[in-house]
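Record type: monomer structure entry
Structure origin: computed from sequence
Chain ID: A
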Amino acid sequence: MTSDYADRLRGHRAEKDEFFAEHPQSPIPPEERDEFDGLRYYDPDEAYRVAATVTRHDDPETVAMETTAGQSVQYRHVVTFTFDIKGETHELAGYRQARDEDAALFVPFRDKTTGHQTYEHGRYMELEVDGELADGDTVTLDFNLAYAPFCAYSETFSCPLPPETNWLETTIEAGERSD
């Protein structure tokens, strides 16, 4: 991992910590912000920046994701990412809300750290892509950018829960942690 990438990642994390500590829209309840001393993160690790092959779904399936508040929200399964970590091949589905086809790809997931070292309901990644993805395209999934949703910090937020198709049978020791 280049020191430039690690420095940019640390800078991104510092900006997020500042937002959580000071911004009126922070998920940290106002009465807890004075004690907030930053989020916990795994150290940056190049092994968790992986090349993923895209399978595009021209007729995306609509998936109802349950939320932490007990409702469901509709997403469209637009792509599947296939990638290797620790010598094993895994897949993650990429989603967009049905009403927002131009949004970043939403990649919620659970792994073997979920509920132990990371938030009990899973973590998220978002992937900005230029243009349309096609079958066979390669993109970088950077688990160093994995984050806990706002509902991890306050019950006033309702967050989608990763569907079982995005439960990884491996540990992803990258991104935000909760322990």
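Annotation 1: The chain has a mean pLDDT of 94.
Annotation 2: Residues 110 and 167 are 5 Å apart (CA to CA).
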